[in-house]
Specification:
Layout lengths: L11 H10 L4 H14 L8 H9 L6 H11 L34 H14 L8 H21 L5 E7 L6 H12 L2 E4 H15 L10 H24 L4 E4 L3 H4 L2 H13 L2 E9 L2 H11 L5 H5 L1 H6 L12 E4 L4 H17 L1
Parallel strand pairs: 1-3, 1-4, 2-3, 4-5
Helix pairs in contact: 2-4, 4-15, 5-6, 7-15, 8-9
Pfam families: AAA_33
Protein name: ATP-binding protein
Organism: Actinomadura napierensis
Length: 344
């Protein structure tokens, strides 16, 4: 939760009205909110006092609370009175139509070949659980069938999702991974622990992300590790989504050109997404996640924010996602929920 201050468009009474429309007591709303939040991977306590604080206007809901409320009430942040709508921001029902049945492709001979190949390489004298092994092989064949039916075999895509700290790039990249089934790689998850140990070994601060020591000696290695891991995937024909700031990289047209050409030589398409966000929302999320690597940014916020370009996307970007005021991530949350309803 964040401290209370005047926020454009904040109307706490709307949250209470929405709860009452659904016929929920504060206790029942808290129970339902926790279930929705857990399903969406959001951290909320949702106790009576907190929900009452949100509805009475004594506490402004933090990022995960706002996302959970939107999921629970199937509404957008402006509809729940959390903020003013962005220009052109759409509201309304996000329920997705049921997809039309797919026409089965002529893939059975190939699927049988894969099955036979897996059977031939299986040393069943060493298998401790034949049932689990057979199930795994069946899933591999099913995954291949799915790729064949969708026409994705031979069409590999490398997606770069960039943006400033706290912009929502990782959440949006994870959403793309959820709906596409493509591999998702986050730079921090891959490199953070090694980065911290490397900085310590060079007598640096493990949480440094702004000095020349990090920028010149460590940062290039982080991105090299990320891109090498991505190459391993795309060499296997696995479409891959990368989440990292990519600030220097996407502003260097030569860097992006070299990457595109290398991938094109392998038959791999490159797509670049930039997640745009406003300074206040980025700060709110950085404060919320409370990561040690963000300490310098928060302690020197004016200096840090002065170097951010929140008006235009870097050159070479194919798609700009508008996550100002958290709008895009809220829509992503509700799209996930709509897909659950479609598939349930």
């Amino acid at each position: 939760m964040t401290t209370t201050k005047q926020r454009p468009g904040w109307q706490p009474t709307r949250l209470r009205e929405r709860r009452e429309t659904h016929g929920l007591s504060l206790e029942a709303a808290g129970d339902k909110l926790r279930v929705v939040a857990e399903r969406g991977g959001l951290r909320v306590a949702a106790n009576f006092q907190t929900l009452w604080g949100h509805e009475s206007g004594s506490m402004y809901p933090g990022p995960h609370y706002r996302r959970a409320y939107c999921l629970m009430y199937e509404a957008t942040e402006p509809e729940l009175g959390f903020r003013l709508p962005l220009p052109g921001e759409e509201t309304g029902d996000l329920t997705l139509p049921l997809p039309a049945p797919l026409s089965p492709a002529a893939t059975e001979d190939a699927a049988n070949a894969i099955t036979q190949g897996l059977d031939r390489v299986s040393d069943q004298t060493q298998d401790r659980d034949h049932t689990a092994g057979d199930a795994l092989k069946a899933r591999v064949v099913s995954a291949w069938r799915g790729r064949a039916m969708s026409g994705s075999i031979g069409t590999t895509t490398l997606v770069l999702v960039g943006g400033y700290a706290g912009s929502g790039k990782t959440e949006f990249a994870r959403f793309l991974g959820d709906v596409s089934g493509w591999a998702f790689l986050d730079k921090d998850s891959i490199t953070r622990r090694l980065t911290e140990r490397l900085l310590i070994s060079m007598d640096g601060d493990p949480h440094d992300r702004h000095t020349d020591l990090y920028l010149k000696e460590v940062r290039p290695l982080e991105y090299k590790c990320l891109m090498d891991t991505a190459n391993d995937n795309i060499d296997c024909g696995v479409s891959t989504i990368l989440a990292a700031p990519f600030i220097s990289e996407l502003n260097d047209e030569a860097w992006l050109g070299r990457l595109t050409n290398r991938c094109k030589a392998k038959g791999v398409d490159v797509a670049v997404i930039w997640v745009r966000c406003d300074v206040d929302s980025m700060r709110e999320y950085i404060e919320f996640r409370d990561a040690p690597r963000d300490a310098w940014k928060l302690a020197n916020w004016d200096e840090y924010a002065a170097g951010l370009n929140t008006e235009t996307s870097p050159p070479g970007v194919h798609l700009t996602v508008d996550n100002r005021l958290g709008a895009a991530i809220s829509i992503a949350d509700q799209t996930r929920e709509a897909l659950r309803r479609v598939l349930s």
